[in-house]
Amino acid sequence: MTNTQELIKQLTDDDVNIRKAAAESLAEIKDDETIINPLIIALSDENSQVRFNSSQALGNIGDVAIDPLIEAAKAEKDGEIKRYILGAIKKIGSPKSVDYFIDALDDEDWGVKKVAARALGELGDIKALEPLQKALDDEDWGVRLAGVYSLGDLASEESIAMIKKARRKEKDKDFKKACNKAIKKAEKAMKNK
C-alpha cells in the first residue's frame, strides 16, 4: 500500500489524532485526484480539526479539486460543513468558482454567505459587483461587512458608490469605519492601475 493510500485509510481511523494527522499529511500532496473524495468525506468528521485540516488539504490540491468541491457544496445541506467546503474552494482561488460563490450569496446559512461574499472580492472578478448588493442588504452584520470589504477589493467607481450607499443606510459606527477603510483601499488601487 502506498503512503497516500495509507493516509486515506487513516482518515477513517477510530483515533481522532490519527485522523487529524492524516488530513494534515494529505495537505502536502498536490494535484492528486485520488485524495479528493476521501477528503470531502472527511469534511463531515465529528472533529473540527479533522474538518479544518481536510479543508486545507483540499485547498492545496489545486484546480483538479474545484469541480468535485463545487458539486459537494451544492449537495451539502449542513451549513457548517458547507463553510469548510467553501474554505477549500476559496483557497484554490479558481475563476471557475466565481459563479458558485455568486449563487452562494443566496444560501440560508449566514456563514456560507459571508465566506462567499469575501471570496468574490478576493477573486477580483468584476461580474461580482451587482451580486454583492445582496450581501450589502443581508440582515447579518458580518455578511454586510464582508460585502463592503469585497467591494473595496473590486476597486471601481461603481463599487465605491455601492459602499457609500451602504454607509449611509447603516447606523453602526464600526460598520461606517469599515466602509471608509474599503473606500480608501479602492481609491488607492484605482490610482495605482
Which helices and strands appear, and what pairs or packs with what?
Elements: H1 3-10, H2 16-26, H3 36-42, H4 48-61, H5 66-75, H6 79-92, H7 98-104, H8 110-123, H9 132-136, H10 141-154, H11 157-169, H12 173-191
Give a verbal description of the structure:
It is a single chain. With 193 residues, the protein is mainly α. The protein folds into 2 domains: 1-92, Leucine-rich Repeat Variant; 96-193, Leucine-rich Repeat Variant (Alpha Horseshoe). The protein has helices at residues 3-10, 16-26, 36-42, 48-61, 66-75, 79-92, 98-104, 110-123, 132-136, 141-154, 157-169, 173-191. Helix 5 packs antiparallel against helix 6. 41% of the residues are buried.
In short:
With 193 residues, this protein is mainly α. It is 70% helix and 0% strand.
Q: Please estimate the helix content.
A: over 70%
Strand content: under 5%
Give the full name of the CATH homologous superfamily of the largest domain. Leucine-rich Repeat Variant
CATH architecture of the largest domain: Alpha Horseshoe
Tally of helical runs: 12
Q: Which CATH class of the largest domain applies here?
A: Mainly Alpha
Instruction: Summarize model confidence as the mean pLDDT.
Output: 94
Apparent shape: elongated
CATH topology of the largest domain: Leucine-rich Repeat Variant
Observed structural traits:
single chain; 193 residues; mainly alpha; Leucine-rich Repeat Variant; 12 helices; 0% strand
